[in-house]
């Protein structure tokens, strides 16, 4: 059995690439330690074979990789070809097989690369003068340059780049087949000369003038708004509208879409040079409207007597999705040890006013079992299952696929797919301790700066929350003598602005490392405070109100950074760091309840129940929610496939929350630069995920390792672990 492949090379930076192309690899390991899939196969292969054992071997198990000398030889040749493709024409590759105990084999590939050949001169052999001029002017962007190491992948990428460049300059018929690189390796100085060749189209018959590549411009543009790709009979248009040189056709008596709404996402224009990018932008722009099941764009050359110019007609076929739809979503929750069930009923109306608007009405409802702070005073007390908390509320979203006045006046790229959003929601929550009503209005816009960057700007948000506390809960709060905790549960008004930036370099179906980064900044209360400042009797130390309600004034920045290290399509290691801080000032002593931070639960410290950790080293002995002004959270998670839709995970989490000031007089709760590291809670655990493609169901079992709420010399809780210490978390999607 093949136990290990080892690469020994005088160019160690090539080892990873060489390993990836070997024809035969050992059975895969989990965490680089044990061969889980091989072990499952061997276990199922014992004794009498059954259908179940065969299924286990086929789906979970991995058959032992038996050393094959033929594949070893092919691997050696493959490695040599790889090295030559990267300029090491004189590379020597040998292999040695060492036989170990227990019928295991270790193959070592020894590589002597020598010096890589470099590019000396690059000569252009281009018969079309117009194309030659374009490429000479663009030579600074070329991937093939003098002095570079010889690389066939660079040549292929340059073919791709040149083809895209020319297809964005009107050359509709151009393809990679016209491009070739002739390389002269006969020089004795470990250098090569490259002849960059672009051929002209073939002559139709002998004696014809050598044809040049054709440059096309867009002529007529036809947009069919009710295309049915499955229809047997072609629908005859009954309505045709010509708007700004675009021909809109429909088989309905009245056009379902206003032309202006569609043109905001169509980048193909009459008279323009043909550009392949404009077709791509149009595909994405129309798809992002959410109105069409199918978008197709095709071109047809227009017959013309002139040889000086060539024209294309463009045909855009749009297959609308249902104008109205609804969906019902049911969910079960077990976040932080709290069991619950809930559901959403969503109704959507698309193209509501014929301008591609989307109106979405959602009703949310949930019932949950949570600890009763009024009846329980110790976090160690057993908790009977009691569905004692419920919440319900509607949410209305209006999405308009463009910027509205006054932002519509500003110049912006249509390819950024700008969207204006209006949202209003109401939530009623009934808990044993209190009843809470929350009303939210928000408006803002979002746009894509580039493929990886997206911006969300919400300059106007209003959030009003009112609490009705039970008398028993009030008595408990008074007994705790915690002023800030009491103020968390008072009525408040938030008028804020919010900005969020997201960078996500993930590529679909491409297994390479990527980064996710989110930064948010929120500021509240300044506009109302400015109005109050205009009063003649303004007092900076006074707290002002609107309609008898204190309004909140604070800033709240936070970020979330994740790095995804992709080893293969089966395994990945994910690192995450997140932090945030809320700072109240002037009209507020504390940030409002809605904007506080908490630790624990399904998405950060999975070994601890939500809202039970912190702040700092403070040890709570009740079921009250633990909230903070500052949060730091770090995670690392190793993800691996088990079989088909089942995935596994091994994780470690660290984090906590703190207070900026110790107004609450909670021992150890204030953030101190010199001690906060020792106050981080630590946990580890394992998880299983079911990947159904359209959603992922997740179960994580967290085990606490370090509890900052214990005495400083007794925070490691490994010796106190028992089965009941495991904290189970259920969720939808990955935690990060």
What would your notes on this structure say?
With 736 residues, the chain is mainly beta. Among the domains are: 2-112, membrane protein fhac (Ubiquitin-like (UB roll), Roll), CATH 3.10.20; 118-198, membrane protein fhac (Ubiquitin-like (UB roll), Roll); 216-320, Ubiquitin-like (UB roll); 517-540 and 551-736, membrane protein fhac: a member of the omp85/tpsb transporter family (Porin). Helices cover 15% and strands 39% of the residues. It contains 11 helices and 30 strands. It has a 17-stranded antiparallel sheet that branches. β10 and β11 (310-320) form a beta hairpin. The radius of gyration is 33 Å and the shape is globular.
- Taking the alpha carbons of the first and last residues, their distance comes to 38 Å
* Computed structural class: mainly beta
Into which percent range does the helicity of residues fall? Answer: 10-25%
Would you report the number of β strands?
30
Number of helices: 11
Estimate the mean pLDDT confidence.
Answer: 87
**CATH architecture name of the domain at 517-540 and 551-736:** Beta Barrel
Write down the overall geometry.
Answer: globular
- Find the CATH superfamily of the domain at 517-540 and 551-736: membrane protein fhac: a member of the omp85/tpsb transporter family
CATH class of the domain at 517-540 and 551-736 reads: Mainly Beta
Task: Enumerate the spans where pLDDT stays under 50 for 5 or more consecutive residues.
Answer: 377-382
Sheet with the most strands, sense and barrel status: 17 strands, antiparallel
Which percent band covers the strand fraction?
35-45%
Which fold name corresponds to the CATH topology of the domain at 517-540 and 551-736?
Porin
């Amino acid at each position: 059995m093949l136990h290990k492949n080892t690469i020994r090379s005088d160019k160690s930076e090539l080892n990873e690439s060489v390993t990836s192309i070997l024809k035969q690899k050992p059975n895969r390991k989990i965490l680089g330690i044990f061969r889980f899939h091989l072990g499952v196969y061997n276990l199922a292969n014992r004794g009498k074979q059954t259908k179940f054992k065969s299924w286990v071997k086929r789906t979970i198990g991995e058959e032992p990789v038996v050393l094959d000398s033929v594949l070893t030889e092919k691997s050696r040749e493959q490695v040599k070809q790889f090295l030559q493709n990267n300029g090491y024409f004189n590379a020597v590759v040998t292999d040695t097989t060492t036989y170990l105990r227990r019928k295991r084999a270790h193959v070592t590939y020894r590589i002597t690369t020598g010096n890589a050949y470099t590019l000396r001169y690059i000569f252009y052999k281009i018969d079309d003068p117009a194309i030659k001029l374009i490429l000479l002017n663009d030579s600074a962007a070329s991937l093939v340059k003098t002095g570079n190491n010889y690389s066939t992948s660079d040549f292929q990428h340059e073919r791709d780049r040149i083809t895209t460049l020319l297809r964005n300059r009107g050359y509709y018929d151009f393809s990679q087949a016209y491009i070739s690189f002739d390389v002269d390796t006969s020089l004795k100085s470990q250098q090569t000369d490259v002849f960059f060749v672009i051929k002209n189209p073939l002559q139709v018959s002998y004696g014809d003038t050598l044809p040049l590549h054709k440059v096309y411009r867009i002529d007529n543009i036809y947009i069919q708004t009710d295309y049915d790709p499955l229809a047997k009979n072609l629908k005859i248009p009954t309505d045709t509208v010509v708007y700004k040189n675009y021909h809109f056709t429909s088989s309905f008596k009245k056009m379902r879409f206003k032309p202006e709404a569609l043109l905001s996402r169509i980048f193909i224009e009459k008279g323009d040079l043909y550009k392949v990018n404009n077709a791509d932008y149009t595909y994405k722009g129309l798809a992002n409207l959410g109105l069409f099941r199918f978008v197709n764009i095709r071109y047809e050359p227009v017959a013309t007597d002139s040889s000086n110019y060539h024209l294309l007609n463009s045909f855009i076929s749009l297959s609308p999705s249902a104008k109205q739809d609804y969906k019902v979503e049911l969910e079960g929750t077990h976040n932080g040890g709290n069991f619950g069930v809930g559901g959403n009923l969503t109704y959507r109306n698309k193209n509501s006013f014929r301008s591609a608007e989307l109106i979405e009405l959602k009703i949310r409802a949930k019932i949950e079992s949570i600890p009763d702070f009024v009846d329980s005073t110790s976090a160690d007390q057993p908790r009977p299952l009691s569905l004692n908390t419920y919440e319900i509320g509607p949410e209305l979203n209006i999405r308009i696929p463009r910027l509205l006045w006054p932002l519509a006046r500003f110049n912006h790229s249509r390819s950024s797919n700008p969207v204006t959003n209006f949202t209003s929601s109401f939530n009623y929550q009934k808990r044993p301790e209190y009843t809470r009503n929350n009303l939210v209005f928000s408006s803002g816009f979002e746009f894509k700066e580039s493929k990886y960057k997206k911006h969300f700007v919400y300059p106007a948000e209003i959030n009003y929350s009112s609490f009705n506390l039970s008398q028993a809960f009030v008595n408990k709060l008074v007994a705790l003598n915690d002023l800030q905790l009491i103020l968390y549960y008072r009525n408040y008004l938030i008028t804020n602005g919010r900005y969020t930036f997201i960078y996500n370099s993930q590529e679909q179906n491409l297994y390479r490392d990527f980064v996710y980064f989110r930064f948010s900044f929120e500021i509240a209360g300044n506009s109302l405070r400015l109005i109050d400042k205009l009063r003649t009797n303004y007092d900076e130390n006074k707290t002002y109100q609107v309609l008898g309600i204190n309004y909140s004034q604070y800033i709240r920045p936070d970020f979330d950074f994740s790095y995804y290290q992709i080893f293969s399509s089966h395994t990945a290691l994910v690192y995450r760091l997140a932090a945030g801080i809320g700072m109240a000032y002037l009209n507020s002593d504390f940030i409002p309840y809605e904007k506080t931070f908490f630790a624990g639960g399904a998405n950060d410290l999975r070994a601890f129940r939500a809202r039970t950790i912190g702040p700092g080293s403070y040890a709570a002995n009740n079921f009250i929610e633990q909230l903070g002004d500052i949060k730091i959270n770090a995670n690392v998670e190793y993800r691996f496939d088990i079989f088909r839709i089942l995935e596994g995970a091994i994780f470690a989490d660290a984090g906590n929350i703190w207070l900026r000031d110790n107004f609450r007089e909670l021992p150890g709760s204030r953030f101190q630069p010199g001690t906060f590291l020792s106050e981080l809670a630590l946990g580890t655990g394992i998880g299983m995920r079911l990947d159904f493609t359209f959603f992922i169901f997740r179960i994580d079992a967290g085990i606490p390792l370090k509890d900052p709420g214990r005495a400083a010399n007794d925070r490691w809780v490994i010796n106190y672990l028992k089965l009941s210490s495991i904290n189970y978390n259920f969720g939808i999607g990955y935690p990060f």
